[in-house]
Amino acid sequence: MAKTISKKGQPETYIDRDLSWMYFNRRILQEATKTQIPLLERLSFLGIYSNNLDEFFRVRMATLSRIAECDDKSVRRESERASQLIKQITRLNNRYAKEYEQAIRDVTQALREENIFLLKDDELSEDQQAFVRQFFRQKLSGFVNPVWLSAVRELTEAADDNIFLAVKLHTDARKAADYALIELPVAVCGRFIHLPDKEGKSYLMYLDDVIRFCLPMIFSGMDFVAYEAYAFKFTKDAEMEIDNDLRNGMLQKISKGVKSRRKGDALRVIYDAGMPKDLLKRVMNKLNLDKLDTVLAGGRYHNHKDLMSFPDCGRKDLKYPAWPPLIKHELDENVSLLKLIQEHDRYIHVPYHSFDYYIRVLQEAAISKNVKSIKTTLYRLAKGSKVVNALINAARNGKKVTVVIELLARFDEASNISWSKLMQDAGIHVIFGVEGLKVHSKITHIGMKTGADIACISTGNFHEGNARIYTDFMLMTAAKSIVTDVNAVFSFIEKPYTPVRFKELLVSPNEMKKKFLKLIDDEIKNKKAGKPAYIRMKINHVTDETMVKKLYEASAAGVPVDMVLRGNCSLVTGIPGVSETIRINGIIDRYLEHSRIFIFAAGGEEKCFIGSADWMPRNLDNRVEVVTPVYDPAIKADLRTVVDYGLRDTCQGRIVDGRGENQPWTTGEEQPFRSQEELYKHYCRLEKDTQQDLH
Asked: Which of 35, 128, 333, 573 could join 124 via S-S bond, C-beta 3.0 to 4.6 A?
């Protein structure tokens, strides 16, 4: 484990975001080891862990490697720190890789106990062998194209989101072996091939083993007498992260100072530990590695992200029980949703509630003769987006529609460009973000001809797919002061860097950070004055050094700081005189915790906020983010419930203390508490009560 001790021997009080990310991803791995979690969900957690690690190396480790290799003297301190951090992350990665391989073995054995068998190429019956040969002829033969390894100039010219087999082919004892490379056609047929079930047992094969079995067919007529095939994968440099925490000037120096690293160079290689040395040497020679890159011997199979789509074999009993999104009866009457919002604030909490209510707001606005304009921000979009379809319909109906779409939403750039063209063709005014600032806010403004305008402010993307697996809050309001501020955000986006002040909203990069700091300062003053003082929040990441120091200041003053936090955390708890009153619960469960909720005691007049911003430099300084106050008593009560349940979670929660062990909470005499399950029950009760009141 990376130590948290400073050179002076004092406890370290700031954990680097990338180190804390490793701790977070390990919490996902730990979920895969819990036998009380349905077996196929454990497989999914293993896939999520693997996929997260790929992206981390592709982006964050790429950035660190570029900084470490920079030869500009003015950034030497940052280069040395990056080199040290790479070493710490590599040690953790090696340690976690062993835990991961054991988890894979344990889950595979548990599958066998449930009569689900993953067969290797040498474990097939005669009937199964015939099935695999026929499958290869019908589905695979045209997509498996070996390349002689000697003919490959650089392996990194290939895509790094797939897996490869390095093949050693033998003729006879007197001749040298040949070497070939096969890229697995996962996109054609998936990673897992379902063989015919038999006697209540399900049989599957990794595509890797199907190819291994069919090597004599692939190399037919070439006089080879024996075949060896070993899997490997590599992760490529995706170039410097655009929204990372460094100053722009420093980014430019590092970009110019890195002479050797290119976009697309390999950063990490994982290979089958059984690969012969002669074959391994030939593979490595094609990857242009340097001393800072990660090379890791692993098991027989890699690219475990594919476990996220593992066939369920009809075994619904091995998955989470269904929690259908709930109907909100107050919004489900045969009346105008726009009018309901104008009456008083409304909200939805997905995926507990259906995202369709937001779609219905847009659909109604698209055809209402009283609506003159719609403005919205889009960051990520679902395939076949109902949101975009509603906006296009609004434009066709003569509404003035403005869409701010972020072209730099990582890994969704191509999709967003395609949607942009479609919307422009429909007459929508499309704004491509703000130069130098990523637009990450989730806001919608609906302008009315008569009556109050409406705004929707969300903690997450307007994305139907995300709304099924991400927990996010959306406030729908006609409160004039908030709606006016939302409209002003769009004006700011269209004319960035012009002076603008917001009365209600906390907006970055304007004054959000300053206002959050003041809210914490107020808690410190109230504590010293003997008034109610506390900070309770739910957030994804806390890495901004200024915010970390301010939270320590609050804790030193005796202010209780209770936090539900999903990902990166630079805080270290339990330091005497520094962070004794800070308690952080990290929850990993069936839904991805994503909502940001901030609650301050405010001397007894509690203040509640929701929004899109985490407490990271990129969110507070380099993005357009929006956080809104919540005034409606019923909605505030629900926000308190969400945070309270998260803090009480002893089933899926882990102690986040900056030390990376992710220990579970000791329950003592208390009953175990699972926040997501209890929230679903809570909303079921609320809707039952609401239905009774309505009828």
From this structure: 128
